[in-house]
Amino acid sequence: MGIGPTIRHKLGRFEIPAAEAYRNRFINLDDLATTLASALPAKRILEIGCGDGSFGQRLCEAYPEAEYVGIDVAPDPGRLFRGDTSRATFRSIPSSELVAERPQLFDLVCIVDVVHHLPESLRVPVLNDAVALSTEDGVIAVKDWERGAGIAHAMAFAADRYVTGDKTVRFPSREELRGYLAAGLPGYDIALEARIPPRRNNVLYVMRRPGHSA
Ligand SMILES: C[S@@+](CC[C@H](N)C(=O)[O-])C[C@H]1O[C@@H](n2cnc3c(N)ncnc32)[C@H](O)[C@@H]1O
Fold it and tell me: What region holds the Methyltransferase type domain (predicted)?
């Protein structure tokens, strides 16, 4: 366990505000969820790599009618989720296993700040799984942290590498990220490329098959 989880468990009831304050320095998750909801209707949402449920909670708030499923390879996903549990399900399962279950497909699949945590060999396969889990007219939203040169990037790297204790962290350049999308989501177009506050490093790609619009 890295230093981050150790400290977080000791914070008790202060864990959620501390985790929120920490994350807000890098990404405004409310902004991301409302950006998606303003442009993309969805009734069934999957989040691959949902973590503690922080973004899942925002998605459930931004999509008050939608059913949400969050999966993660880590144990106890959705641990900090405080939203509507009647519409949200969390499972500790890799995306490949969910594909094998052949579940009802999803019209929005989100992959937020996960690609840079994946080993190189899994980056395209996880995106392939997102395709297999999407409806024909579904949307895949990939948000990641673009590698940069400034102080913000140095802080993000230190946070992910040393605070979370994840040794596989490697942030992609914008070109690398677009390369993963091209290889992992064949037949999909970039419907939207956007920057999410407060840092320009936050790049969002909304991917969909041609001929399908919101
Ligand atoms: C920075 S967290 C992001 C959590 C959430 N998406 C959010 O934005 O609040 C990255 C997550 O990716 C997960 N992850 C790493 N490898 C994964 C894999 N192969 N499949 C699914 N999730 C994975 C980690 O366990 C971690 O919870």
Answer: 46-139
